[in-house]
Amino acid sequence: MIYLDHNATTPVASEVVEAIRPYWGDGFGNPSSSHGLGRRAKQALEDARAQVAELAGCLPQEIVFTSGGTESNNTVIKGVVHSLSDRGRHIITTAIEHPAVTNPCLFLLYQGYDVTFLPVDSTGQVEPSAVKEAIRPTTILISVMHANNETGTIQPIEPIGALAREASVLFHTDAAQSAGKIPIKVSGLNVDFLSLAGHKMYAPKGVGALFIRDGIVLEPFMHGAGQESGRRAGTENVMFAVALGRACVLAREKMSEEAERVRHLRDRLYDLLSKDIPGIVLNGHQKARLPNTLNISLPGVDGGQLLDAAPEICASTGAACHDRSVSLSHVLAAMQVPKEIGRGAIRLTLGRENTEAKIETAAQMIIAAYNDLTKGMGHL
Q1: Which of 11, 23, 63, 152 has CA 20 to 30 A from 235's CA?
Q2: Which CATH architecture has domain 14-251?
Q3: Segment 124-165, tens digit of pLDDT
Q4: CB-hemisphere CA count at 13 Å for 326?
Q5: φ/ψ (deg, to 5) at 92
Q6: pTM, 2 dp
Q7: Which 3 state secondary structure label does DSSP give 174?
Q8: What does 294-317 look like in DSSP terms, one character per residue?
Q9: Which CATH superfamily is domain 255-377 in?
Q10: Which phi and psi (to 5°) does residue 298 adopt?
Q11: Rounded to whole angstroms, how far apart are CA atoms 204 and 197?
Q12: Number of helices (H), then strands (E), in the chain
């Protein structure tokens, strides 16, 4: 198997496994306990918090551990509207957000809040000018993802953040896909909130973090005891917090070199496929794109059928077929990708274990599958 689905999830790094090993055994203490085992767990928790904060370029006390990106996003969106509903009931987001942002916004829309879903251009980017025009006196939150999980397109977060500050509107970015791949320093992004997910950056599933700018008070998403400085109730998952902290250290150490390495492999893969499959279409921004992400449409075939014909390739599609109708992903639809192009979309996302040899083998497998489909079935 050749794994090219790192935007869906990543394997847990061996260094991360080693970091959490003690917490399967003697390090089982509750960090809220005052005895020795509790103090040891508390120290591990705070060390991990500092490691996450260093990756995000913020203060340790501005980091809240969560169960993942979905909880982080929900915490911001629902917390802001609960805390600031007396100031207004308008939210701005985009048409290409992850469901962990889109669905909470739709939930609030049904509750009587006003939500603006901004369009994107053909590369998948939102225009900062569109954000500016959408801001109203009643706007209380803007949420724009840092990088898209399907196309890898990176959004102009810094200028949008500057517009939000000028209008005194809180600004959130979902950085689940960008964290560990490109810099996510919150000061440079001009954000008030930033979400990240551990399993997108070689930590286990079930852990994430949320940056909340110092001084901002949100109603907790979950109520209970006073863990996480009263911002997230529930006994802290020390083991997974340690895992996330170690993953953030690895990401910070490897980011620059790894970004260049996977960018080279990604472009090599695209070149190999383009050489033997004329008419390939790149979905996403040519340059402002995550270094590991390649979303392409192959002419005349269905992406799902192609991956079925190359079972050794672990990847994702951009469209689904139901009763001879094609349903594009909401991202490709928002980019106004024609159905005949979008139906052939596949997402190939690289990671640390991919090598040049694996990429060349993957290209050969995809080309062979494509040739078999178009030879045996004709162009669909």
Answers
A1: 11
A2: 3-Layer(aba) Sandwich (3.40)
A3: 999 999 999 999 999 999 999 999 999 999 999 999 999 999
A4: 22
A5: -115, 130
A6: 0.95
A7: strand
A8: EEEE-TTS-HHHHHHH-TTEE-EE
A9: Aspartate Aminotransferase, domain 1 (3.90.1150.10)
A10: -100, 125
A11: 9
A12: 12, 15
Cα torsion angle, 176, 181, 185, 190, sign: negative
- Span 253-273, average pLDDT: 98
C-alpha dist (Å) from residue 205 to 18, 68, 71, 111, 252: 16, 7, 13, 31, 20
- Is the per-residue pLDDT at 376 higher than 70? no
First to last CA, the chain: 28
318 pLDDT higher than 90: no
Residue of 151, 116, 114 whose CA lies nearest to 130: 116
Q: Give the alpha-carbon dihedral of 158, 134, 329, 124, to 10 degrees.
A: -40
CA-to-CA distance for 24 and 242, rounded, in angstroms? 12
Instruction: Return d(Cα 340, Cα 279) in angstroms, integer.
Output: 12
- The tokens of 265 are what? 């492999």
Report d(CA 362, CA 367) in Å as an integer: 9
Tokens 């005052």 belong to: 34
Q: Angle at Cα 235 formed by Cα 230 and Cα 237, nearest 5°?
A: 115
Closest CA to 349 of 178, 184, 152: 152
Q: Which residues, 6 or more positions from 365, have their beta carbon under 8 angstroms from its beta carbon?
A: 2, 310, 312, 313
The three-state secondary structure class of 128 is helix
Name the residue ranges covered by the structural domains of the chain: 14-251, 255-377
CB within 8 A of 110, min separation 6: which ones? none
Q: How crowded is residue 362: how many other Cβ atoms within 10 Å of its Cβ?
A: 25
Residue that has been written with the tokens 């939102």 in this structure: 126
Model pLDDT, residue 230: 86
Catalytic residues: 321
Q: What percent of the chain is predicted at pLDDT more than 90?
A: 91
